Each structure stands twice: as C-alpha cells, then as structure tokens.
UniProtKB/TrEMBL annotation, chains A, B:
The gene is argJ. Catalyzes two activities which are involved in the cyclic version of arginine biosynthesis: the synthesis of N-acetylglutamate from glutamate and acetyl-CoA as the acetyl donor, and of ornithine by transacetylation between N(2)-acetylornithine and glutamate. This is Arginine biosynthesis bifunctional protein ArgJ. GO terms for biological process: L-arginine biosynthetic process; ornithine biosynthetic process. Heterotetramer of two alpha and two beta chains. The lineage of its organism: Bacteria, Pseudomonadati, Pseudomonadota, Alphaproteobacteria, Hyphomicrobiales. It catalyses: L-glutamate + acetyl-CoA = N-acetyl-L-glutamate + CoA + H(+); N(2)-acetyl-L-ornithine + L-glutamate = N-acetyl-L-glutamate + L-ornithine.
Length: 410, 410
C-alpha cells in the first residue's frame, strides 16, 4: 500500500480555532492499526443540537442504525468514532458492539443513551472488539480539550493520505460564530448519501430541526456530488453539532433570515471538506470538475455528469493525460438521458474540443493536452437541449487505485 | 500498451467450417494500424436474411444509424467492418464516410444500398477517411472465400488480445445447419446493448423476422449480461445473417417448433462469444461469474449482480486475490434494490463466507483465499427475499486496465 501523501493535498492544513462547548481527544486502542491513534471522541459539555445524514445503503453498518435511532431526540453529549473496523455486516455481534461502546460512552460523560453518537470506519464483516473502548473512553472524556481538531481528524483516517479539516466564521444574529469540520474518506466514495465520515461542530445557537434542514439542503451540492469510485459505503455518516455556546437568540427555523451568512459559511465548509475527500481519492493525481449544461433538467444534467465522472475509461484517460474527448461522448451517450449527438459541445478547460457533434474545426491537440497536464482539470459539456445544469467532482483512476484496493484487507 | 495474450484466452481456437453462401476476405487499408489487417468483408452470394441489435447509446456512431435504417428491408449482400476508427461523433463527415463506404460496397457486389451493412470500431471523434475503402473493397469481394473466419476475426480486433470465434451445428427441419460467429471487444463493454461487434452467419433457411426474434431473445442472457468496465460503446453492433443455403422449408416464425435445436445452438454460440469478450477484458486475469438468487424479481437480481460486477472495489479485490466479501455486501447495499442485511449469505466458489448477515461461523480464510487464487471464480449471493435470479459475468480490474486505457489514443 502506498503511504505517499496525495499530490493534491492542501499545502497547509487549516488552523482550527476552539468551538466553545466542544472538547476533543484521541487514543490508540489497537483496534487494527499499530503505532497510530484509532479512536476519537468529541464531548459536548452541555447537550448540543444534532443533525445527521447517512448512507442510502440497504446494508448499513450497526453504528449508522444506532445514530439514526437517536437522531429524533435532537441532542448529543458525546461522539465516539473509531477507524480500523467499520462494524458493518457484523449482525447481532455488531449491535452488541455498539451497545457496549455506547455504555462506555455513557459512563464517560454521564448522559442518556440517546445523547451518544457512534461511527466506525474500516474493514467490513469482521467483528469489532468493543471491549477495547471500555478502557479508554473514560480517560479520553477527562483529558478532552478544545484543541486537537487536526489530531482528531488523523485518528479517523483509513486509506486517507492526509487529515481533512476546514473552518469558517459567520455572523449570526449579531454574534460571530465559528464552524469547524473534519472528514475522512478516500475510497468507497460515491453520491446519494453522506459519502464518508464527516463531523461538523459550531458554537451557533440553532435548534436541531433548523440544523438538520441546513445540513440536508447543502449535502446535495457538496458531499453528494463527489465521487471517487462510484462505490457507496455501508457506513457513510455526516453529523453536525451546534453547542449554542456563542449565545444570542436560539434560531428555530432554517428559513430564519438571520441565517443567511451562516448558511453560506456552512455550505462553503461542507464543499471544502467534500473536495478534500476527492483530492485524496485513492491513487488520485488529478482533480476533475465536470459541469454539464443545457440538459433537459438539473437531475438529467447530474446523471450525465456522474456518468462521465464514474466512467473508468474517462478516468483512465485523465490519468494518462490523454485529451480523449470521444470517451466523454461515450459517457454522455450511455447515461440514458436525452442527448442530441449533433448539438453536443465539449470543453477541456477553456479549449473547445468538440462542437455540433464533431471535432472542433479549430481543434488543437497541443492545446487540449496542455490542459490535461494540469493538476486540476475542468470538463464542460453543453448539450444544447434545455436549461438543466449540474457540477460534480471526481479524480482520475490510476494504477495506484488498483494497488491500494488489491490488498487493502490483507 | 500490453501485447501479451490474455491468460484467460482459449487454449485452441475453434476451427470454423464453411457456411454455404458466405464468403470472407480481409485487407490492410492502413486506416490506423500498420502491419496488420483492418478491413473485413462478408459477402452473401444471394440476399441473406438479416437481424441486428445495436447500442442503446444516445450518441450512436454513423454506421450504427446506417444499419438501423437498412434493417427493415431484411436482406443483406455485404457486410464491411473496419477497425482503427469508430466513425463515431464525426457528424456530417461521418455520414459522408458511411455513404462513401456503402457506395464502394455496392460497386463491389452489385446490390442495393439497403443490402449493405457497415460497422466501425476504434477511436471516437476522428474523421474516418473512407477513400481508403474505395481501393480495396472490389478486390476483396472478388477474392473472398468460404475460409478465413479466423482471419476475419483478427481484422476487426482493437485492444483485443485474441480473435474470438465460435461454431455450432443444429438440426433444423431434417437438415443439419451450421452457425459460425465472431466477436471483438475488450473494453467499453457493458450491458443493455449488443456490447461490442459480433457477426453471426448460418446457412439455415430462416426469415428475417424469425431470425430477429431469436437474436433479440438470447441477447438478454448472453451479450447483455457481460461487463468489463460498465462503459457502453457508441458502436455496439450484433448482426446475424442466414443465407438459407442449407435448403429445407423456410422458417417464418421464431415460435416454429422445428427451431428448438437451432435456437439452443444459437444461444450457446452467443454465450460462447460473449464470454470470450469477458475473458479478453482489458487487463483481465480472472473471469468472474456472479449469481444473485432470492431477490424480489429477476430484474432486481440482475441489477444487484451488475452492482457487484461493476464495483471497482470488488474488481480490484478479485485482482488482488483477496476474499474481501465485505465489498460484496457494500455492492448489494448500494444497488438500491430490496435487501435484508440480516438474511444475506455469500459464497466464493463452494465456500460459504457469510450467512445470516455476518461472517460464517465456520469461515476459513485459507479456504476462501484458495478460491480467489483460481482463474475462474464463482460468486453467489442469496438474498432470502424472493425468487428472483440472475447471472452476469465480468473480469477483475488490474493495473493493466489502467495502463491500456491511459494511453490508448496517443
């Protein structure tokens, strides 16, 4: 397995400020890895509003089911996340493992079971030995502090080559609030769900229903429009917590006009984290932004964009820095959405390579290839049919992806 | 680009007998390749019944449109196939190229335009210089002979590492008839269409409508259930020709009871060719048969089977000989069809690895790994919900797939 950091990694990691009411700790519980942390806890000193989005998999992990059940209660006191084992497809043993972990978490902070949130990431199908949490959670809750966001992001990594963190501030009802977030994910990344693990916390004073509405609204243009390999995890979990420690009036509705600045900052933070996941796509060397315009509807545009983004032939061409726009045509054609070959136009960056259903008369292989040599590549397809529009993000498909995934488990 | 023959290639190629009424020839017209043949013609001395199935792509190639138009006429005198250029997404120039090629074909055999069939395979988006056909087709039609099926199959190869041919005989109305077929395809292979180029010829005396019904019926369990990379070509074309030279009463309906033996032989030949395409999947080292049982419906079973067959994570695990059945669970979960995690059972070969939603109590890593080391791997999933059933075939995803497709065009 490669241990090289993705060439698309951020040059510097964001320096995350404190979020009043949030404390973090990490530990090495030896779940699978050696010589690294594999447990992270986030402790909320007072019950925080919580919102969540989960995988659409019909075979979700035990922790996903656990969180879904608790979400209706709306408050959280502790989040426990482990890497190395996903506790997915572990049947009755999996449910016992979540119960055991929750029980240790309850003891650690003294809360109700409905205030506990759990997430696990790693290998599927192997029983998770939850007794490993029993010994560490109490100590972790005690030494948890407001620093350590980057360390927390490191503890939840699996095949990630770098920790993913982001921060934003926003004005909310006359108060300056902060939003911090972290994410993990590099493979088994595809849309229509929360697409990996991501945890966001803010000191804003927002009710659970309003927080949920904001999270659900923005997931469609952030985490749900990135894809690494079209594979949907059993464990995808995106949770947001609002401690309310910033003070100010509590916001009850997502439609509250005071939320304008906060919502935009929240969306930007989600997009930032989602793109960091793509930039750490397993084996990735290129980041690709795919925009489809002129489709029958926005939904049709999104399906065509994903057909391009998930095509192995498009992704390998990008890896090979080959301006093979014929494969874009192929992917448009197979999407099943309305398309008129003879109206299609395609751009790589600013270079139009095809127009009116054939190669651009002014096509320059040199110009197209120069775009393909870049690290960030924008592909745009104009269908010329309607007003539908969508943008999705993906990475290239390299030999390293195959190498990483050919022996991940062993 | 690799030039090694797939390790999954047949040990010997079938020896194809003559089909009365069919003559073949190949030529090197220099369309793209050097030092190899790139044009194949199949000449029918008398009008043969013809049937066809084509790509479902919304951006089909010019030859696909040309064949679709002619099909209603029901007879064929000549088939012209070239490799090296797909004449797809070539706009007006593409239609001119098919017209020019058809015109040379008409001159070569003296027939109506509606009796001409064309197929092109290779790079998309580059204008095809059809003047290259003008010089060779007349000579080819003259020297065409009943031998040379293997040579014909070689002339239509692109990234294929071996020619694909198959033959069967059947009893039809008291007469012994022969069916020969060839196929090409190694990448851009996915279901819901004819899935590459394949040409089948028989001396059976069958009307076009009956031949079409047989072809359409069997495509669903043969060519449409194989996938190499989930990518659907713009050029997929499957054509069948029946010369009637065997004599006997002409069969007008596919429901004719005399067809029983013929239909089975025809289906077997189609399956044989379809599996040869998978066995030459770009970079393939393993052939994988995926069976899903106990689904809500057959259609649901097929969608789940394809979700497994097209999952990059499943395919790379197979390449790595890793019995990573957790990824099978993932692929079942993401298919969107009804599944109950806690009833799921999974077999690799004869080894049950998971049952009742968790790892089999008798799970043996050694036994599972022994299956993964084989060249042909059978994966079976039992959902325990209904009676729906489907089998699909695919190959593994190796670094060679990435290498082949990272620089195919350049």
């Amino acid at each position: 397995m490669t241990t090289t950091i993705s060439p698309l990694a951020p040059k510097v990691y964001a320096d995350l400020p404190h979020i009043a009411g949030v404390r973090l700790a990490t530990a090495a519980a030896g779940i699978k890895y050696r010589n690294r942390t594999d447990v992270m806890v986030m402790v909320f000193d007072r019950p925080a509003s919580v919102a969540g989005v989960f995988t659409t998999s019909k075979c979700p992990s035990a922790p996903v089911e656990f969180c879904r059940q608790n979400l209706s209660h709306g408050t959280a006191r502790i989040l426990v996340v482990n890497s190395g084992n996903a506790n997915a497809f572990t049947g009755k043993k999996g449910r016992e493992a979540t119960r055991l972990t929750a029980s240790a978490a309850i003891d650690a902070v003294g809360c109700a079971e409905t205030d506990v949130y759990l997430a696990s990431t790693g290998v599927i199908g192997e029983p998770l030995d939850a007794t490993k949490f029993a010994g560490v959670l109490g100590d972790m809750a005690e030494r948890a502090n407001a620093d350590g966001w980057l360390e927390a992001a490191k503890a939840i990594m699996t095949t990630d080559t770098y920790p993913k963190v982001a921060t934003r501030t926003a004005e909310l009802g006359g108060v300056l609030v902060t939003i911090n977030g972290m994410a993990k994910g590099a493979g088994m990344i595809a849309p229509d769900m929360a697409t990996m693990l991501s945890f966001i916390a803010t000191d804003a004073n927002i009710a659970p229903a309003a927080l949920q509405a904001i999270l659900s609204e923005h997931v469609g243009t952030t985490f749900n429009v990135v894809t690494v390999d079209s594979d949907t995890s059993t464990s995808d979990t995106l949770l947001a917590f609002a401690t309310g420690a910033s003070g100010g009036t509590r916001i009850e509705s997502a439609d509250d006009p005071r939320l304008v600045d906060f919502k935009e900052a929240f969306r930007q933070l989600m997009a930032d984290l989602a793109l960091q996941v793509v930039r750490d796509g397993e084996g990735a060397r290129k980041m690709v932004e795919i925009t489809v315009e002129g489709a029958e509807t926005d939904a049709a545009a999104k399906r065509i964009a994903f057909s391009i983004a998930n095509s192995p032939l498009v992704k390998t061409a990008i890896a090979g820095e080959d301006a093979n726009w014929g494969r874009i045509v192929m992917a448009v054609g197979k999407a099943g959405e309305q398309a008129d070959r003879d109206r299609l136009a395609i751009w790589f960056g600013e270079v139009r390579v095809a127009v009116d259903g054939e190669r651009d008369p002014a096509y320059s292989e040199a110009a197209a290839t120069a775009v393909m040599r870049q690290e960030d590549i924008a592909i745009r397809v104009e269908l010329g049919i309607g007003e539908g529009r969508a943008t999705v993000w993906t990475c290239d498909l390299t030999k390293e992806y195959v190498a990483i995934n050919g022996d991940y488990r062993s």
